[in-house]
Amino acid sequence: MEKQMLKIAILAMAVVGSISTIGCKKDKEESKNLTVSNISYTDCLSENKDALSKALGDPDSIAYSYQNNTLYITHYNLVVGCGEEVHVDVQSIGDTIRIAEWTDGYVDCVCSVDNSFQINDVKDGLCILEFVNQGIVLQINL
Fold it and tell me: pLDDT, tens digit, for every residue of 1-34?
C-alpha cells in the first residue's frame, strides 16, 4: 500500500511539474533589445512650472506605421522634463515590444512633446506594444 501511495505521489508531482512548466512558457521566452534609431522630438508644446495640470491637458496618443521590417512610432503629448533630451529603449519579449521613454536628471518643470522614433528588425504579425512609463498597451497587427 505504501509503494502504491509513493507511486501516486511521484506521478502527481510529475503532473504538477509539467503543468507549471507549460504555464511559465511565456516567462521563459527569450528577450532581446531591438535597435532604435532616428529619435526626434518637438520643443515643449506646453509648459507649466507649477503643476502637471497643463502638461496633462491633452491626452497622449500613439501613431504607428510599418514598412520593410521597420516600425515607425510617434508618441503625441509625451510628458517629459522641460528642455531635456528624450531617450528611448526598446526590448522584445515574445510577442511584446516594451518601450521606455524618459529624460535624465532632476527637472524643475514638465511639458508635453511629440516624440518620434523607429524600431528596426521587427518581424511582421500580431504583437503588443507596451509603453512602460505611461501604462499604454496596444495590440497591433504588422
Answer: 444 443 443 433 433 333 332 222 334 466 677 8
Flag whether 38 is in a domain. yes
Domain ranges, residue 53? 30-141
56-65's contacts with Cβ under 8 Å and 24+ in sequence apart are 58/112, 60/112, 60/134, 60/136, 62/129, 62/131, 62/136, 62/138, 64/129, 64/140
User: Is residue 2 a part of any domain in this protein?
Assistant: no
Give the whole-angstrom CA distance, residue 68 versus residue 49: 42
pTM: 0.69
Q: Is the residue at 116 inside a domain?
A: yes
pLDDT, tens digit, 9 for 90 and up, residues 83-117: 889 999 999 998 999 999 999 877 788 888 899 99
